[in-house]
C-alpha cells in the first residue's frame, strides 16, 4: 500500500513539472508556444519511459545494477552512423537534414544491429549473457574508434553538426516523429506488459527462474529485443542519453525497496519524467540555454555512479 | 518415476556425463554419491532442465521432459542448487511465495496463501517470516529455500548438496525434514551428497557415480559395503554397524 502512495505522489510531482514547463511564462501564447512545448514534453516523456524501462529490465537480466543498455554499443553505433553520413554525404544531404528519414534510418539500423548480435550469439546456444555484454563492449569501442577517426578527418564546420548529434537534445524535436515514436513504443509496451511478471522471478537468478517454470531463454531474448527497440527509438529521437537510466533505475530501487518490477519500472519511469521535464525547465529558465540538459544529467549521473561504486564496494 | 535414458553431456570433447541410464523410484530418497567431478551435479542439472543434454532423454512419469511446458514441469519437479546467490533483498515469506509462481504467476490466490502458510509452519519459520534472507544463518536460509520448494508442491524434489556449509546439527535437521517429506507427504527426493554416512543413514537407495558413469545403483544396504565403496572411492572404507546405522569409518584409512 505504501508503495502505491509513493507512486501517487511521484505522479503528482511529475504532473506538476509538466504543468510548470507547459504554462510558466506562457503570456497567453496558446497557439504558438503551447503546442511546441507540448511536443517537447511528449518527447521527454517518451525518452524517460524508454530509458527507465529499458535500464531496469536490462539490469534485471544481467543481475547488475551498475550497467546500462549502452554497454551493448547502440549509442556508439548511432554516432558512427551519423558521423559516416555527414562525412560521406555532407551535412546538406537529405538524410541529415530530413529528420524523418534520419530517424527511421537510425532506428532501423540500430534494431537490426541488435538483432544480428543476438542472433549470432544465441545461435550457438548456451552462451551466457556476459558473453553478449563483452561482445557489445568490444563492438561499441570499435564503433567509437571509427567515429573518432572520421571526426578527426572531417571538415571543422561539418564536425559542428556531428557534435550536435553527440548529445541528447530536446530543442529541435519533430512533431511527426514524436507521434510515430509514441505509437511504436506504446505497441511494444503493451506487448511487453504480460512478461513483466517473469522479471520478478528472473531477479532470483537463472536457476531459480527455470525451477519456477519461467521459459528463461525465450523470455531473456524477448526482453533484450524490447530493450534494443526502446533504446534505438529514444536515441534516434533525441540522441544518446542512456547513462541517465542508471540514475533513475537505482533511485527507484532505493526508493521503493521491492522486487516487484511493475512497481520498480513505473517508479523509475515517473522519476525520469520528473528529472527530464524539471531539468529541461531549469535549463531553459534558470540557465537560459547556456548549457544542455544532457550535460547536467551526465554530470549528476557521473557523481551518482561513483557514489554507487563506493557503496557497492563497502557492502560487497 | 523419473527415467533417465542414456544421457550424456560433453564439455568440448570431454564427456562429463556419459551414457547414464538410471531409474528414480517414486516415494523414496535416492542419494547420488561419488568423488568430485563424477558428474552428479551435472546429471541433476540435466534432469531438472537447467542444462541441455547432448544426447539421451529424461522421462518424468513417462512424459519427455523436453516436450513439457516450463510451467507444467515446474509443478512436477523442483530443484535446489547449492548456491543461491541473488540480487534482491527478500523476506522469508516473499521467497516462499515465489514457490507458488508456477500456479498463480505472481498473483497469489487464497489457496496459495494457505499453502505458503503451511510450508512456513512445516519448516518452523512462521515466527521469523518477515526476516530478510541476508540476515539469516546458513541453516535458516537452507530451510527457507526448502520451504519454497515445499510451497512449489512438486512430486519430485531434487537437491544439489543441500548440506554444504552446514554444521552437524543443521545437517541432521535438514535430512530429517527430507525424510519427513518422503514419509509424510509422499514426495520423491533426489539428493547429491558428499557425506556417505548421511547417505547411509537417511536414504532408501543410493546411486554411485564415477567418471561420468553410474557404477553402482541399488538399495542402501547393498551399496554401503566395504568392497563396493572402495571401488567407488579408490580407498579402503571399513564399515561399523551401531544403533542400526551403518557407519563408514574412513577417516584414517
From TrEMBL, chain A:
Gene Ontology MF annotations: transmembrane transporter activity
Location in the cell: Cell membrane
Domain of life: Bacteria
InterPro entries listed in its UniProt record: ABC_BtuC-like, ABC_transptr_permease_BtuC
Membrane topology summary: Multi-pass membrane protein
Gene3D superfamilies hit by this protein: ABC transporter involved in vitamin B12 uptake, BtuC (1.10.3470.10)
Keywords, ordered alphabetically: Cell membrane, Ion transport, Iron, Iron transport, Membrane, Transmembrane, Transmembrane helix, Transport
A Gene Ontology BP annotation from the UniProt entry: siderophore-iron import into cell
Entry GO terms, CC: plasma membrane
Residue stretches spanning the membrane: 38-56, 77-97, 103-122, 129-154, 177-196, 263-283, 289-310
Record family assignment: Belongs to the binding-protein-dependent transport system permease family. FecCD subfamily.
The protein, known as: Iron chelate uptake ABC transporter family permease subunit
UniProtKB/TrEMBL annotation, chain B:
Keyword tRNA processing tagged: no
SMART domains with a match to the protein in the record: AAA (SM00382)
Domain ABC transporter residue range list: 2-236
Pfam families documented for this protein: ABC_tran
GO MF annotations, alphabetized: ATP binding; ATP hydrolysis activity
Name of the protein: ABC transporter ATP-binding protein
GO CC terms, sorted: plasma membrane
Taxon lineage: Bacteria, Bacillati, Bacillota, Bacilli, Bacillales
Record keywords: ATP-binding, Cell membrane, Ion transport, Iron, Iron transport, Membrane, Nucleotide-binding, Transport
Amino acid at each position: 500500500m505504501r508503495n502505491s502512495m509513493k507512486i501517487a505522489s511521484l505522479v503528482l510531482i511529475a504532473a506538476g513539472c509538466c504543468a510548470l514547463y507547459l504554462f510558466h511564462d506562457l503570456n497567453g501564447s496558446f497557439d504558438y508556444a503551447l503546442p511546441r512545448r507540448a511536443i517537447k514534453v511528449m518527447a521527454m516523456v517518451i525518452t524517460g519511459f524508454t530509458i527507465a524501462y529499458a535500464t531496469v529490465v536490462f539490469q534485471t537480466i544481467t543481475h547488475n545494477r551498475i550497467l546500462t543498455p549502452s554497454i551493448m554499443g547502440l549509442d556508439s553505433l548511432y554516432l558512427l552512423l551519423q558521423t559516416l553520413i555527414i562525412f560521406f554525404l555532407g551535412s546538406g544531404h537529405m538524410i541529415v537534414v530530413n529528420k524523418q528519414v534520419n530517424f527511421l534510418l537510425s532506428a532501423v539500423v540500430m534494431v537490426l544491429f541488435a538483432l544480428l548480435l543476438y542472433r549470432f550469439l544465441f545461435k550457438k546456444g548456451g552462451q551466457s549473457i556476459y558473453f553478449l555484454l563483452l561482445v557489445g563492449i568490444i563492438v561499441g569501442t570499435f564503433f567509437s574508434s571509427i567515429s573518432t577517426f572520421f571526426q578527426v578527418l572531417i571538415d571543422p564546420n561539418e564536425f559542428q553538426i556531428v557534435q550536435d548529434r553527440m548529445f541528447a537534445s530536446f530543442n529541435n524535436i519533430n512533431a511527426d516523429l514524436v507521434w510515430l515514436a509514441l505509437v511504436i513504443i506504446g505497441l511494444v509496451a503493451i506487448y511487453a506488459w504480460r512478461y513483466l511478471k517473469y522479471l520478478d522471478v528472473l531477479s532470483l537468478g537463472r536457476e531459480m527462474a527455470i525451477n519456477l517454470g519461467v521459459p528463461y531463454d525465450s523470455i531473456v531474448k524477448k526482453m533484450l529485443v524490447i530493450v534494443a527497440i526502446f533504446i534505438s527509438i529514444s536515441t534516434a529521437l533525441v540522441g544518446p542519453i542512456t547513462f541517465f537510466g542508471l540514475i533513475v533505475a537505482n533511485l527507484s530501487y532505493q526508493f521503493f525497496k521491492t522486487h516487484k518490477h511493475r512497481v520498480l519500472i513505473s517508479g523509475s519511469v515517473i522519476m525520469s519524467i520528473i528529472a527530464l521535464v524539471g531539468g529541461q525547465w531549469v535549463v531553459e529558465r534558470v540557465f537560459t540555454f547556456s548549457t544542455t540538459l544532457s550535460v547536467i544529467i551526465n554530470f549528476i549521473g557521473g557523481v551518482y555512479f561513483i557514489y554507487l561504486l563506493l557503496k557497492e564496494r563497502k557492502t560487497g | 518415476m523419473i527415467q533417465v535414458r542414456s544421457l550424456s553431456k560433453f564439455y568440448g570433447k570431454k564427456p562429463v556425463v556419459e551414457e547414464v541410464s538410471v531409474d528414480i523410484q517414486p516415494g523414496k530418497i535416492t542419494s547420488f554419491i561419488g568423488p568430485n567431478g563424477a558428474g552428479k551435479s551435472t546429471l541433476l542439472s540435466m534432469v531438472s532442465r537447467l542444462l541441455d543434454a547432448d544426447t539421451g532423454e529424461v522421462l518424468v512419469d513417462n512424459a519427455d521432459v523436453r516436450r513439457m511446458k516450463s510451467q507444467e514441469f515446474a509443478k512436477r519437479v523442483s530443484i535446489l542448487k547449492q548456491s543461491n546467490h541473488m540480487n534482491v533483498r527478500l523476506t522469508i515469506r516473499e521467497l516462499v511465495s515465489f514457490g507458488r509462481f508456477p500456479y498463480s504467476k505472481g498473483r497469489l490466490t487464497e489457496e496459495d496463501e494457505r499453502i505458503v502458510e503451511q510450508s512456513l509452519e512445516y519448516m518452523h519459520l512462521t515466527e521469523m517470516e518477515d526476516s530478510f534472507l541476508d540476515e539469516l544463518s546458513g541453516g535458516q536460509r537452507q530451510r527457507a529455500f526448502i520451504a519454497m520448494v515445499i510451497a512449489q508442491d512438486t512430486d519430485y524434489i531434487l537437491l544439489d548438496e543441500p548440506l554444504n556449509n552446514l554444521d552437524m546439527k543443521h545437517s541432521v535437521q535438514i535430512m530429517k525434514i527430507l525424510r519427513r517429506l518422503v514419509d509424510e507427504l509422499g514426495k520423491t527426493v533426489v539428493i547429491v551428497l558428499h557425506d556417505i554416512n548421511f547417505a547411509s543413514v537417511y536414504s532408501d537407495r543410493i546411486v554411485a557415480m564415477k567418471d561420468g558413469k553410474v557404477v553402482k545403483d541399488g538399495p542402501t544396504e547393498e551399496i554401503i559395503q566395504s568392497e563396493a565403496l572402495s571401488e567407488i572411492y579408490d580407498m579402503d572404507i571399513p564399515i561399523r554397524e551401531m544403533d542400526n546405522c551403518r557407519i563408514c569409518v574412513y577417516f584414517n584409512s
